[in-house]
Design a protein that fits this description.
Elements (H helix, E strand, L loop, with lengths): L6 H4 L1 H21 L6 E5 L2 E4 H17 L4 E4 L13 E9 L1 H6 L5 E8 L2 E9 L4 E6 L4 E3 L2 E2 L12 E3 L2 H6 L10 E3 L4 H9 L5 E4 L3 E2 H13 L2 E4 L14 E2 L2 E5 H11 L7
Parallel strand pairs: 3-4, 10-11, 10-12
Antiparallel strand pairs: 1-2, 4-5, 5-6, 6-7, 7-8, 8-9, 12-16, 13-15, 14-16
Helix pairs in contact: 2-3, 6-7
Amino acid sequence: MTRTPSLQDELGPEHLLLLEAVREAGALAMRYFRTDVESWDKSPDNPVSEADLAVDKLLRAQLMGARPDFGWLSEETEDTPDRRTKSHVWIVDPIDGTKAFLRGHPQFAVSVALVVDGDPVLGAVFNPANGEFFEAVKGGGARLNGTPIKASQCADPVKARLLASKRTFRTHDWLAVADGAEFHFVNSMAYRMAVVADGRYDATITTTNKSEWDIAAAHLIVEEAGGRVTRVDGTPITYNREQVHHDNVIAAGAKLHDVLVAGLKTKAPSS
């Protein structure tokens, strides 16, 4: 009996391409890390460095060179409307957590997703400073350095370890939802979501704008690890939209996600 090819089978060549490109990108980033790298502000409090641009160039050459018919959306490349006409789109953050990178802190990551018809189907988040390579294929589970990972089973927000701002919870009158929880911070959103995927933390929540390149790859990794990623009110997040910014994001283990959303969506974040 002939086996019907799975999505994982179909994506096999792109998966291998992604893994190789992201590993090379991480190695390139490390050649700049903790050096006198040139940097400047694209906008107030929004730095970019020569390392970001070099990694972006490498990834574009590798990924688009192999798949020139795919679309491209990257933080460090000028966006063009033609990507909206493509079913397959690479969504890239060459260095997510540039502030941490420039300070010499190992809280940054190369983040790349392949999105098909608005849905992430391949994702890799690589923190080369810590040697942590998270990746996933839709329907194939999530892995850290080749070992399967699972999101937290915590269902009690009071006992949760959150990668979130306690001040945000106070500002939006949410603190009662998670009073007693531990609050922690990691600079890179992609890395933040990835460590939620492996159960190190129970959830991450942000009410500041995040772009598609910040979250697309980690979104898939969290969900393939058994977690959930949505807006704070529980509505889904899709990709390759004309507007690439999302005003809030929650990623959590499935049990905690539903509890947090039920508590948080009763109060909209302040504008």
